[in-house]
Amino acid sequence: MSRPLRVLFTAYRGNMRCGGQGIYLWFLARELARLGHRVDVLVGPPYPDPMPFADSVHELHDDRFWGKWFLQEWSSFFPRENPAAVLSPLRFYELGASRMGFFPEPAAFSVRAFREIARRLRGGVRWDVVHDVQCLGWGLLGVRALGLPVLSTVHHPLTVDRRASFRRDRSLREAVGTVEFHPVGMQRFVARRLDAIVTSSHASAATIRRDFAIAPERLHMLGNGLDTELFSPDASVARVPGEILCIGRTSDPNKGVAFLVRALAKLPAGTHLTLVDEDHPLHDARKLARSLGVEERLTITGRVETDELVRLYRRASIVAVPSLYEGFGLPATEAMACGAPVVASAAGALPEVMETGGGGILVPPGDPDALAKAIATLLEQPEARARLGAESRPRVVEAYSWPRIAQRTASLYAALRDVRGRPTSTTTSASSGERSAHASSH
After folding, report:
1. I need a labelling partner for 246 at 20 to 30 A (CA). Which of 25, 186, 418, 432 fits?
2. What is the pLDDT of residue 176?
3. Which domain holds residue 19?
């Protein structure tokens, strides 16, 4: 191995239960440490699980005003020990922006990270590269101005979430709220000025090129990783006949859960859907299932620990991924790693993942009839389900195990380190990205 690298990760949310960015941070940092590289982490709340493999983990405070305002948690809005502390410039900005409907968390975190990085540099600490995870806040431009190579992982651009929110909006006021909430302008501006953007699929790379106008030579598709030791089959766990599993937030229209519930109503009475999602009495999936007469055939688990999630994959007859867009499609890869056959929408990166794993069937997105037909076909063929599960596992391990992803990422780090003496004119590469995007649209 060449000289070990010293890598600094920045992530405005670090907990694995907050989504793919927390999972990506924890496992990539662990694998890099296993390869002999030194890893430091600056992270915002909710904070990650313990990371004993890291040289340091520094938790940056955030009041999370937007979430408190949205949930109307007025009693915890101001710090009890010193309410006047919110008048400091950055915290006051977060307070005001949140109250106006903006989402200031990524921008504020990036400024705090910049301050901490500058402080440590003055103290003599040095890094080969700074790896941002899905933040793309203004402070990263300051970090780059300090002379450090900076790259960011973007599983999919925020424009995808904004378009999905627009589809859900029912009034002009809601549409205005969508524009306010998604800091697309900041992320696009920052992404075009970093040294590299990393993503996990060709579909996501194409969307980033189109929506963020990234110069193609600075966009790197390195894939996403999977803990293939944890997500694995277990012959002692029996598959439950008629059991369909779906991992997805019903509140996110991109996850397509409503189409799967409608498909459930078209399937035989012995078919049952287990949905891993936050649960509450007014859950939209439960209301839809009730209106279709299949509420008793739907179970919503609430949050589950990782071990329980693995058990659910191992006992499911079929895992359904009805998404309208996925930047990667982690549930599909986790399912195939556990030997479960998959029925997925041909949307976003899912065709790539399914072709790689070869463990199931693709259907047109947003089509309950096609979902129901594919699920019914597999339910009627236990031998085919077993064959798909057995054949997909080694292919997923070959393509998506974390050691492979970490090696590819470390190679990119080394390349960025080796061009540390780049001319400052590279900061204008946004213009070439815009030209490339413009040319590709004709």
Report:
1. 25
2. 79
3. 6-225+404-440
